Amino acid sequence: MSWEFKEEHLDRILVPTGLFFMFTYHVFLCYRYLKFPLTTAQGSEDYYKKIWVEKMLQLEAKDKGTTVAVINSNISAASSLSSVSLVLSSLIGALIGSSNEKDIFTSSFIYGDSSPTIVSIKYIALLCCFLVGFASFIQTTRNYALAAFLISIPNCDIPANYVQKPILRASHFHMVGMRALHIAATLIMWIFGPIPMLVSSIVLVAVWYLLDRNLTPLYQFQQRLQSQQTNFHKIGEEIATMTRGLRHQERGNVDRSSNSDAA
């Protein structure tokens, strides 16, 4: 008995293939981030955020208004994204509860498996992505709020790493939330069939690869500080030389005037 190919089999082949592409790419990205962090966009962001925290902690308490404003803007962005994720999760939940056999997503124009079981799996997968995004953005808001409390403490010599940790955790949770929304976009394409889902997965992996790599050399803040100190040292030496010359000239003028008085 020969095996007969049916369009329902496309979901069993193409959908796992698209998910495998996205999973393999993130394994590669995690390897690059752990071994060569400065070659990734996330690693370069972590580097600049660490420097930003160190510089902001050097300011006086009255001058930290801009610092708190920057953190508050990130909190507002994360709160908006968490609200969007929650609304979409509620919408998907309502669609699951009210789905029926006459749903547009089970119609005959979709090339693939349109059985009620597969449609329910599509909805549940979308719901999981939006819930992961909601939880990640909530954690982003929480960590940014903690960093705002720590960095705004007046007359406090708190170490920089105490503020850097929540800032970096917030950045990582924000990345996870955004990736969950990106994956949800490919699952939305799965609603229209496994072929659009596979194509969108390949395109998304290509876009991720372009966005996640860092080809710009990092700015070395410490080297700039050392060069400034060297310039200040040279200026100080020049001023000291000029001062010694002026003193020597004044001493010569005083000797000449004393000699003329004696004569």
From TrEMBL:
Keywords annotated in UniProt: Membrane, Transmembrane, Transmembrane helix
Highest rank taxon of the organism: Eukaryota
Residue intervals passing through the bilayer: 12-34, 75-97, 118-138, 184-211
InterPro entries found in the cross-reference section: DUF599
Pfam families given in the database record: DUF599
Name under which the protein is recorded: Uncharacterized protein
